[in-house]
Specification:
The chain has 14 helices and 15 strands. With about 400 residues, the chain is of the alpha/beta class.
Length: about 400
């Protein structure tokens, strides 16, 4: 029922705007009677769908620090029963209990709008917006053919109160514009979720590869295509349809490689994949960083995974088979051919040939240069965010 309602609102942006205005007014009035409680913190990841990403990294850092030992920590989930917390409470998203927690919490930590897009302003609240990746593709109403995105344009005075993470000057400049934010609101610290990529040991990686069924001696290719919001099936669910003959891939690469297919979380259908000795569907694997750590090579298209995986300084390839369509319908902030550390392959056969003839050392050098340009600050982002939370609380 909830998903059907959300889907209906997405198809009717004018009604969405009216719903948000009504919710904002209701919460503003309710908030008069609900004080902000000291030493309370609310977390949410991807609208409550997950217990991961940068909010989880910030939560882990909070749990490690003795100065937060007496704080009340609450996580908002769409399905709380699916998750177990080492510390804190759970609340279900979009319930009265959730909005009560939102109104009363002193610190909010989210990665895609913890207040459900309502634009709620609360005096005395420290708000952290880590976001969830550098914007290679256009976002937040700047999409070429945006629908719901149009109503997400930020209005009103410049936001200098929210703590925002940025991986480089590039994404800070985009976020500053689309979120109507002040430059001082940004931490050039990288994404907290990427801190863990610097902590994997060879033993950790071997254990992950064993769990994924990657035979010793074989290399792993991680394929991370993003979603196309304009590709909808009869149920209005998003899907992807890359021109890949997986039997051809297995014949060409199966002796030396395993392919890990990771669909974007917004994609409902991904080719109807059937796992083989060559193919693993890891779309539901809970820890994306594990997949990065296990992979010898990553292939993507217009995804922010390029920026995250680059910190490992490993080879990356680009399979942009629908570049003109994507550039026209969604739009890109960067010229792929200029920005990426690899050629932009349009055809399956060209990509397969490139994998066969890969010079891993040369590719890694180019990835390292990309890493230094677009993600130079990665490694201690969670610490930087929590330090800034403490600084804001002391003001």
């Amino acid at each position: 029922m909830r998903q059907s309602l959300i889907g209906y609102l997405k198809r009717h942006p004018s009604l969405t705007e009216l719903t948000w205005l009504a919710a904002r007014l209701f919460l503003k009035i309710w908030g008069i009677f609900v004080p902000v409680r000291p030493k309370t913190m609310l977390f949410s990841s991807f609208g409550g769908r997950k217990f991961d990403d940068s909010p989880k990294a910030v939560y882990d850092e909070i749990c490690r620090r003795p100065e937060f030992s007496d704080w009340t920590l609450t996580w908002a989930f769409t399905k709380p029963e699916r998750f177990t917390l080492s510390r804190g409470e759970k609340v279900q998203v979009d319930t009265l209990a959730f909005f009560q927690a939102l109104l009363s919490s002193q610190v909010w930590v989210g990665n895609s709008g913890i207040d459900r897009g309502i634009g709620l302003k609360r005096k005395g609240v420290v708000r952290v917006e880590t976001w969830h990746g550098a914007p290679l593709k256009k976002i937040c109403g700047e999409e070429n053919n945006a629908t719901v995105g149009r109503q997400k344009k930020h209005r009103g005075p410049l936001d200098g109160r929210t703590i925002r993470c940025a991986q480089s000057e590039f994404d800070r400049s985009v976020f500053q514009r689309v979120f109507h934010a002040e430059e001082r609101a940004f931490l050039l610290c990288g994404l907290p979720r990427n801190d863990a990529l610097f902590r994997y040991t060879p033993e950790d990686i071997a254990g992950i590869r064993e769990k994924l069924g990657i035979p010793v001696g074989k290399k792993a290719i991680l394929y991370t295509p993003t979603y196309r919001e304009y590709l909808l099936d009869e149920n209005h669910d998003t899907y992807i349809a890359p021109p890949m003959d997986l039997a051809k891939w297995e014949a060409a690469l199966g002796a030396d490689y395993v392919l890990l297919f990771r669909a974007h979380y917004a994609v409902t259908a991904a080719l109807g994949l059937r796992e083989t000795a060559f193919l693993r569907d890891v779309s539901r694997y809970p820890v994306l960083n594990d997949l990065y750590a296990a992979a010898d090579l990553m292939i993507s298209d217009y995804s922010s995974t390029f920026f995250d995986y680059s910190v490992l300084d490993r080879p990356m390839l680009c399979f942009a088979y629908d570049l003109e369509e994507y550039r026209e319908k969604r739009g890109l902030y960067l010229d792929l051919a200029e920005a990426l550390p690899c050629p932009v392959d349009r055809e399956e056969d060209t990509l397969l040939e490139r994998i066969w003839t890969l010079d891993a050392e040369a590719c890694s050098r180019r990835t390292r240069a990309f890493h230094q340009r677009f993600a130079p600050w990665e490694g201690r982002a969670a610490q930087a965010v929590v330090d800034e939370i403490e600084r804001r609380l002391s003001q």
